[in-house]
């Protein structure tokens, strides 16, 4: 309306717009159609989800039933299987460790279930036994158990400061627990066998002196390689913590060179075979020189002296030039040799002390 309160004139443009505008009834019907379409889509989506859920539930239920049936069959199979019996138990490397102690650590026996045997528990138990250094336990199907034992063998009896101690190949002392396990706590010279104290036995060498245990493995192996010498040896004495003397059962002392014990024993073994040197009443045999030896004679046997030419027999591997030279203890006058030998032996006897012989004529410092 204008200011005068009259209606504005209706134009043709406004009439056209009024004709294009939808009526209220049309708008209501359009809204109803939109809601119906939304409900239909929601119903279809819910139906699809319901079908999918039923399918997943069916598959899961079927799989669970399958696994349950498989587990039942497995339990039934395990419960009805026949055990694999132990047919044989093999123990290797055992020498001084009691066999019943090893068998007790296995916790099994012939005829028992093979799968119930624990390899780890058996190995740990055997490693804790006396004299056992390392153990390998193997289970071989269908019915064999193999036990391989590596032992610390007592190789010698060491006497130091009036005490006896068993030592192994490394020179380490055998513990009191291990000694009591084999009933060796008395610590007196005795024998140990390949199968324990009750089996075949061999004598353990006796080592004497400070530092004798440090070189025990080497000197015991060298002595064992010369059985002709070994049977005459009563003890091996360490001198100055660097070389060895052999004390024989006859009382003779054999002085070995430092670091060349094997070669010296080979020469001594040759002399024993040629002239029965170790069976003669000698006080000292000095073998510290590679091409000769010096003999010390007791005064009561000086008249029965060994011929120097026999004592200086050619040594295998020695320098011929050095053998051609007369040794320092040979008398250049054969006519006076017999009368001079008793006096020389008497003088040597006055100068000698046990285990500390006088130096040879070559000027070598005493060891």
Report on this model:
By secondary structure, the chain is α/β, with parallel strands linked by helices. Among the domains are: 88-151, Roll (Ubiquitin-like (UB roll)), CATH 3.10.20; 156-317 and 340-349, no CATH class. Helix content is 39%, strand content 17%. The protein is built from eleven helices and 13 strands. The strands form three sheets. Strands 5-4-8-9-10-11-12-13 form an eight-stranded mixed sheet. A three-stranded mixed sheet has the order 1-3-2. It has a two-stranded antiparallel ribbon with strand order 6-7. Helix 3 (99-106) runs antiparallel to helix 4 (119-127).
**What is the terminal separation in angstroms?**
147 Å
Structural Rg:
51 Å
Envelope shape: rod-shaped
In spatial order, strands of the major sheet run 5-4-8-9-10-11-12-13
- Tell me, rounded to a whole number, the average pLDDT: 74
Question: Which structural class should the secondary elements be placed in?
Answer: alpha/beta
Domain POTRA: 84-152
Subcellular location: Cell inner membrane; Membrane
Keywords: Cell cycle, Cell division, Cell inner membrane, Cell membrane, Membrane, Transmembrane, Transmembrane helix
Region (Disordered): 311-367
């Amino acid at each position: 309306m204008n200011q005068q309160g009259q209606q504005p004139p209706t134009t043709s443009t406004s009439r056209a717009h009024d004709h294009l505008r939808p009526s209220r009834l049309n708008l209501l019907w359009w809204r109803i159609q939109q809601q119906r379409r939304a409900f239909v889509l929601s119903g279809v989506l819910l139906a699809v989800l319901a079908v999918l859920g039923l399918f997943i539930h069916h598959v899961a239920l079927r799989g669970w039933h399958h696994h349950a049936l498989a587990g039942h069959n497995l339990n039934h199979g395990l419960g009805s299987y026949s055990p694999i019996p132990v047919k044989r138990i093999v123990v290797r490397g055992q020498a001084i460790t009691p066999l019943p102690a090893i068998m007790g650590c296995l916790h099994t026996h012939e005829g028992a279930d093979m799968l119930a045997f624990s390899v780890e528990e058996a190995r740990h138990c055997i490693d804790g036994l006396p004299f056992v250094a390392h153990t390998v336990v193997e289970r071989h199907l269908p019915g064999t158990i193999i036990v391989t034992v590596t032992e610390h063998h007592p190789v010698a009896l060491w006497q130091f400061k009036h005490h006896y101690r068993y030592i192994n190949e490394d020179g380490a002392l055998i513990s009191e627990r291990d000694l009591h396990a084999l009933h060796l706590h008395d610590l007196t010279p005795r024998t140990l066998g390949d199968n324990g104290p009750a089996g075949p036995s061999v004598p353990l060498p006796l080592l004497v002196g400070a530092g004798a245990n440090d070189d025990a493995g080497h000197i015991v192996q060298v002595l064992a390689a010369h059985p002709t010498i070994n049977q005459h040896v009563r003890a091996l004495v360490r001198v100055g913590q660097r070389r060895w003397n052999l004390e024989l059962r006859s009382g003779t002392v054999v002085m070995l060179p430092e670091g060349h014990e094997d070669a010296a024993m080979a020469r001594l073994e040759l002399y024993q075979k040629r002239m029965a040197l170790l069976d003669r009443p000698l006080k000292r045999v000095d073998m510290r020189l590679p091409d000769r030896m010096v003999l010390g004679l007791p005064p009561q046997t000086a008249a029965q002296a060994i011929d120097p030419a026999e004592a200086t027999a050619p040594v295998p591997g020695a320098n011929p030039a050095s053998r051609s030279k007369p040794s320092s203890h040979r008398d250049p006058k054969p006519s006076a040799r017999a009368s001079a030998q008793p006096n020389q032996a008497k003088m040597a006897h006055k100068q000698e002390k046990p285990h500390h012989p006088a130096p040879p004529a070559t000027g070598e410092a005493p060891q």
